[in-house]
Amino acid sequence: MPVVQLSRGPVHYTDAGSGPVVVLIHGLLVNGTLWDGVAPLLAREHRVLVPDLPLGSHREAMRPDADLSPAGLAAHIAEFLDALDLQDVTLVGNDTGGALCQITAADHSKRLARLVLTNCDAYDNFLPPAFRPVQLLPRIPGALWLTAKLIHTRVAKASFDVLVTGRIPADLYAGWTAHASDAGVRHDVGKVLRGITVRETQRAIAALRRSAPATLLVWGDADPFFKPPFARRLAADIPGARLEWVPGARTFVPIDRPERVAELVAEHVRTAAPA
Q1: Which of 131, 153, 206, 220 is deepest in the core (most CB within 10 A)?
Q2: Tell me, what CATH number does 255's domain have?
């Protein structure tokens, strides 16, 4: 897996295919393998890059002084695009990564041609209420260390299974939790959790109401955390945004329906005029 050294630290990524550039962004406590079902389908006609962001499942810790606030992570994504000199990018985000894509589009739009948001955080839903207690972990001495010890258990995995219609494959989950024992990775995720604030998603949507890349929403309609009215509101607030439903899919729509996600992203790249 190639790696690029950025100002906040190293980013491991995959890079496959050729053609229009698509960059796939994952969310909290997972890594780029979230997109393993989607990326090969898109790579038939596109250049597809999938970075592993420092959101708790990354393999190398960031620098101790790295800014891992939402705005800092958006700048990290923008620096990744700059470092590889990617042009006319279609930026695709899921879950927490969708919020980061909104902030990237608001603050660093120069390399973006299109935006695709799958089920993701926005507005005051950053994090969703059911997951907000997780933000307390870095404030409790030893809590992140204990969580890292317990995250390999069946009970912990079951808390991730609610994000899909069936169950997350065991090997996929094992990859997400492989580096939980690394103290540097735990330090990074603690910084990320402490930095999450709805002020950033509110600021991003205010900017996108004024100006946004050509935007598509690909939304699982069975998501208990980002329900259909939430998607309709987001589509209405972003000028010209188009909303496509993925029946029966939950938060991790790239796992539930990878073929449909790839089909809709590819169609958006073909038909949506660049920003």
Answers
A1: 220
A2: 3.40.50.1820
